[in-house]
Amino acid sequence: MKLRFVGLLMAILLSAQAAPAADSKIRVLIITGGHGFDENAFFDVFKSNSEIAFTHVAHGKTNANVYEREDLLSYDAVVLYDMPKNITEAQKKRFLSLFERGIGLVVLHHALVSYQHWPDYERIIGGRYPEEDGKSGVVTPQVGYQHDVEVPVVIVTKDHPVTAGISDFTIRDEIYWGFRVRLDVTPLITTTQPKSGKPLGWTRNESKSRIVYLQLGHGPEAFANPNYRKLVAQSIRWVARQTVK
Q1: For 60-75, what is each residue's pLDDT tens digit?
Q2: Between the CA of residue 23 and those of 52, 184, 231, what are the distances in Å?
Q3: Which domains does the chain have, with CATH numbers?
């Protein structure tokens, strides 16, 4: 009886060590709104990440009201998969307060299009996809996008925590061209796809915060790609200043 009790106790202790406590996980706020997407496929990227505990919120239709949340500054990292057009002055101040606090930011795919008339947003995330007169869906030879393209991804900075353990790969995804990239970014990934803009991902610092932008990530095929998932997971870990477990 005593041996059985000791065995049970050891099993409980080992289980507790193997499963990280909820409060030890990286706290992530995922922000959407302003652009449609396959929710089940997208959120599976984060549900499959055992290192994080995430909260999902979406902006309203008129502006970026998520930044009015009282708990905004309680997260380790914020992930943007949104594309709002408008943001109030008060919401701008709240957004900027993320970087005063040192909260990490991961910017994905179409969030490069947000806030066409706010220069600070372009400076902070490191670039912008410029819309013609703010009209979504306009495709020209100079600026545009194309779905379902086989994209060869080339790792530029191989010794960075975001790209650690990832070799060059191919992903079926949406490409953009004509987007702007600031000179103060550190490129992480690029592509040999001739029509696509370059690079496809970069980092920069803003005040006390780390920022990563990844152009990849339009639909279910891209979301399911293990290399994409690893890039997202390692981006979150790095901007949240977490070490490899």
Answers
A1: 999 999 999 999 999 9
A2: 10, 35, 23
A3: 24-137+201-239 (3.40.50.880)
